[in-house]
Amino acid sequence: MDFTPDPHAQELVASLEEMMREHVLPAQQRFEEELDASDDHWAWSRVPVLQELRDEARRRGLWNAFLPGEEGAGLTNLQYAALAEVTGRALDLAPAALNCAAPDTGNMEVLAQFGTPEQKEQWLAPLLRGEIRSAFAMTEPDVASSDATNIATSIRRDGDDYVVNGRKWWITGAMNPDAKVLIVMGKTDPSAERHRQQSMILVPRDAEGVEVVRGMHVLGYDDHAHGGHAELAFHDVRVPASNLVAGEGEGFAIAQARLGPGRIHHCMRSIGVAEMAISLMCERVSSRVAFGRPLSEQGVIRDWIAESRVRLEQLRLLVLKTAWLMDTVGNKGAHTEIQAIKIATPATVEWILDKAIQAHGGGGLSQDFPLAAAIAGIRTLRFADGPDEVHKNSLAKAELKRQAAARG
Amino acid sequence: MDFTPDPHAQELVASLEEMMREHVLPAQQRFEEELDASDDHWAWSRVPVLQELRDEARRRGLWNAFLPGEEGAGLTNLQYAALAEVTGRALDLAPAALNCAAPDTGNMEVLAQFGTPEQKEQWLAPLLRGEIRSAFAMTEPDVASSDATNIATSIRRDGDDYVVNGRKWWITGAMNPDAKVLIVMGKTDPSAERHRQQSMILVPRDAEGVEVVRGMHVLGYDDHAHGGHAELAFHDVRVPASNLVAGEGEGFAIAQARLGPGRIHHCMRSIGVAEMAISLMCERVSSRVAFGRPLSEQGVIRDWIAESRVRLEQLRLLVLKTAWLMDTVGNKGAHTEIQAIKIATPATVEWILDKAIQAHGGGGLSQDFPLAAAIAGIRTLRFADGPDEVHKNSLAKAELKRQAAARG
Amino acid sequence: MDFTPDPHAQELVASLEEMMREHVLPAQQRFEEELDASDDHWAWSRVPVLQELRDEARRRGLWNAFLPGEEGAGLTNLQYAALAEVTGRALDLAPAALNCAAPDTGNMEVLAQFGTPEQKEQWLAPLLRGEIRSAFAMTEPDVASSDATNIATSIRRDGDDYVVNGRKWWITGAMNPDAKVLIVMGKTDPSAERHRQQSMILVPRDAEGVEVVRGMHVLGYDDHAHGGHAELAFHDVRVPASNLVAGEGEGFAIAQARLGPGRIHHCMRSIGVAEMAISLMCERVSSRVAFGRPLSEQGVIRDWIAESRVRLEQLRLLVLKTAWLMDTVGNKGAHTEIQAIKIATPATVEWILDKAIQAHGGGGLSQDFPLAAAIAGIRTLRFADGPDEVHKNSLAKAELKRQAAARG
Amino acid sequence: MDFTPDPHAQELVASLEEMMREHVLPAQQRFEEELDASDDHWAWSRVPVLQELRDEARRRGLWNAFLPGEEGAGLTNLQYAALAEVTGRALDLAPAALNCAAPDTGNMEVLAQFGTPEQKEQWLAPLLRGEIRSAFAMTEPDVASSDATNIATSIRRDGDDYVVNGRKWWITGAMNPDAKVLIVMGKTDPSAERHRQQSMILVPRDAEGVEVVRGMHVLGYDDHAHGGHAELAFHDVRVPASNLVAGEGEGFAIAQARLGPGRIHHCMRSIGVAEMAISLMCERVSSRVAFGRPLSEQGVIRDWIAESRVRLEQLRLLVLKTAWLMDTVGNKGAHTEIQAIKIATPATVEWILDKAIQAHGGGGLSQDFPLAAAIAGIRTLRFADGPDEVHKNSLAKAELKRQAAARG
Hints:
Four copies of one chain form a homotetramer.
Chain A: H1 7-36, H2 48-59, H3 77-87, H4 94-97, H5 104-114, H6 117-128, E1 133-137, E2 154-158, E3 161-172, E4 179-187, E5 198-204, E6 210-215, E7 229-240, E8 244-245, H7 251-287, E9 289-290, E10 293-294, H8 299-333, H9 335-360, H10 362-365, H11 371-380, H12 388-407
Parallel strand pairs in A: 1-4
Antiparallel strand pairs in A: 2-3, 3-7, 4-5, 5-8, 6-7, 9-10
Helix pairs in contact in A: 1-2, 1-3, 3-7, 3-8, 5-6, 5-7, 7-8, 7-9, 8-9, 9-11, 9-12
């Protein structure tokens, strides 16, 4: 076991940190203003300052850093993890600047792994070049979609086409008109075995019958800087059969494959969020005086800072180990750890943000600091990709089985 | 000791519950639409449906229920508490419909208790009639204002006038143009004894030099249904000396006097919020099925429901006892209990809301349920009127003193 | 609603507090020494100092204060609650001095309510006079006995006798040779309806076939000052049929009836334990200096004290309300509240004790303060009479039903 | 970064696990019986079965595994950590069998690092051979000894001797008559600079004036299997000046140096304790049935198991990283991490033990499972070597300084 950071990753981190300091952080306000001045409330991807940052990222070799192999920057999960953490310190801008923003990352992975040459040509290539965006349409409003068998959207074969009907919500990014393609999960065969009923299909956002119903709010945010979270309705949407990803019945397996890297990314960025929160908390309490002493000398505040550091160090190591497992034994071998970080990350990071907010008083919940928007985003991770309770249940089942085997 | 509910309060509660069922809850959507259609984003008090509800409240004798004595409905704190809880189930509309919304309630109390006949005539009377609104300007952006000695706003005597200079924020209701009067806390004598430096003065919102800088957001919400939370700047604002409330140096004492009832009201309404959350949680989990069973049969969900009920019952009793103490031994005699409920209420209610949200999945954080807006509001209570940490510190000091006395 | 304490209870409390100060607390060390010097390690009831204290309790009219009606002191549950809290401040001695110690209290209630005149004459009378002790044998080692249908002990009719076979553990008080009578729960008819299978029967501790296997430890304590916690085996123990309590199939109902008052007593005494812990914590931190300041001025310690007070006040009110409900609507009507305090009390009191211990450093866990023994005792309440998890599950079920009814 | 376990450590772990399975675990009951049958209640080190296990450990090359360098087994901290975890599964016997039990380990380190050749010859050599035991006398009953300046024991130079006066408690192991040597911390120069006042001196346990006052209890345990926790009084105890360790004023520095490895060992063993608890919890809930289903299928229990696993994985990684830091940058460079694991470990392990106990019902607190004794031991870690609150305060101060430096 060797905790020495990877030298190549360290170089990239240094370059990214320089870019953050010199380019990204100073651009945050301009991004907000340009987005507000934009013609389309949701079209964050067209904002000029973002194009400049993307050029900078390309110059530094940070473009598509999330994607292993030739199509991406050739980094391991462990190497990328160190970068993803840094981007978490400016969640609105940094991941997008590196073309490493969810849900595009997961969608590109799906296309890279399961797409046909034609699908790659049509959708993956422009995504990798940052010309278009995408969305992933799985969650449904009317059922507990953590249980994949509940999926009610239908994908019905009809001649050379498939016809999609159903309703989805919380489709992040889909309010953005640039999200040209939607990966839609639905059932092709409700009578098949439990995990073979579902398929995924590529639906152009401008296909006939695709209705963008509304944007969902997260607490009071519409998240337009991320393309919002759309409610979508599919009314007899017809797409060519060649739009199916992999094959009929592969939907569940693709969803599972997509989750691993997605969670690592979310978790590492969230750790960056927590580091940002600790920095702000320390800065605030060092300058704020009440009852004759800086807040930084009050015992309860010190307790928060210490707990924050102690919890975050533990969490980071588990996320890094999970990345390493994915690199060495694959996503399947890392299944339990992937669940574990999905459970552990929001719990820890939300706690730290809550304390940082409290240290800021009213300002902490306001638009003056990034803490309020951050806690709203982190809060969603407790049910995104299935509520924590489902994952805990599953992780416990695996532990019980493992222990029973050990008892013989 | 007798836990039988007060019969008069019970009658009023029954009437209010009927009004909620038949008038308030059905009006919530109309209120939102009319507010959105309003000329002024912040002028919630002009919305037609509200006028109708106010008439209903007057008819039922629920108007100004918060105010004891002749000027109000003549209820004790304990009696009003039962009503306040019910209004918490529709926080946007019900308190306003009864003319029992903060910060007007506290401001009316201040005027009723400390105002001159002229001040009462000019400001209290139209407030009691619901013709104008008001705001209370204490918190400042640049200092930890939980420590009253930090207040930086100056109120300087100049001939027959006072001249106000300073900056305030989180001034709830002050974005509303109908908030005709501001009660402003500032220092008249920075050289006086610690708690005699501050005074309060009445400043018309349209006085020259009053600048409404912007509205503060709470987790993405601008709270326009409550008149927002303004940042205000006072640039050489000149008002007649007769606008001073009570006398020079009375500011701290008035602020203390204002806090007691205000907290009881907040706490009781928050308990209503929690009851609403428990109801929604129970309804949701009874109808939602995952992995073959309704959520209501899953152990962890049951644990949340039980914990919610057990914690809320304890909290309610402490709030009611505090109301009773205020009625029997006065605000000063109830000082420790008032601090205790200020600490206990957001902790318990935020916990319950968090679980209710989790039981709703993504919907829980969205605009589709009142839970997200509720948790944002409740979260502010952890630092409104000073952060919990300050109150815990003070409560502990009192306990240590009491215990030392008991040891002799 | 009226929170004024009951004047009669207040008088008795004053008398009890005087007795605590002048007699009980000064006797604690002597009790320990006499118990150590005793011939029988478990025979706490024979210790001389206890006899003196009992005489004092009788003189003051505090004897059998727990028992309502003529047989006892004629107090309501609410009145006795105030006394029980005071006895919690010296758990080893005070309840016993008043003949108000578990499990005798519950057993006397069972006999008073369900016993035949002969059973009362033989067992209740000497118990009320404090001449003998008793035990209640329900929990079994081999099954989850929170589920009454799991009870494996058999009570088989055989002519004019019943024959008892089975194994019990955690039978508090039964190591004491003075525990002359055991109330044993077993099954008379395993084929009956779920809650009609069980019966209770009186078994003299010296009956043939009763084996006292060993004393169970609680975190290293053998609790000999309470008669320990015995593991018992019943080998064909034959008792006359007239020893049956109430009738065949009444066991479950008797157990339920026994629980209500028992829990109130436990909870009120536990609140007294918490008050003792707060007192000790305050005393300790006021005198202990580290890094130049008394611990009482350190923020985290203040936070503990404030939280302790805030939580305890809420808990006490719920326990008192439950006592009031039992007095006014009966044990059945107070069912939910009885469950609620069973859940809430150990959670709160254990938390307070943990903090008081931490404030004492190593001493807190040692024999030098009553905190360590107290936390061991309180910890057992989390599964005594069924684990909290079972009670939460049941309480949630009732809440879900209530909410469904309210929705109509 | 590479999470592959060290192959040499893995081999030793495999050997140790075999030894645990075949020798240590089967010997636990015999150890207890032989200890009970022993002439001296405290002389655990003389028990026959232990000698056999020690031979086994020597045969396997596991003897003195804790000690790096030639004098020990030549393992790094990281390598030993893996072994220490395994010994945590049988805390009473396994560390002692490997001659790796506290406080001897820390004392041997002190002697190895700071001892003169004569001191090593006299005390270190027999300790390394397992012929004698030792104790470390730092904590004092009358002061908060987490603040080293509070130490009240005096070590006064008098001719060729030092004379020791003072009172110590919680001196683990010192009730054992085989603890031939005490390392005593006291003040040689109260007027020196804050951290140069203290010195350490070797005091034979049988020196004139050493009084063994009594054994301290931890909850209800006297921990005789670890030589208890003695209260000691030093009445004009005279030892030759050559018994001083290092030099006058070096006491604080030696104490600091001693802490690092000691904490790693404690933490790794505690992780083994937690693993043992998870195993027992899983076994219990798989076999126990209530209300028609095994406990292992109940949601709350699953939640406990999942949380236990998720928390423990994070903790272990931080402890291992700390061991690696000590190996690569030294104890001083690992200062913050050493504090972090000291804070994190008892919090996590106590939580897991509490849940495992609850899953066992009454049995969990009793002598029938190792859980009760384990939680008592783990609880002490929250104030051993200074309460967590002191360490959090210090860790936060370092974080604040680091953040201030980063802000520039």
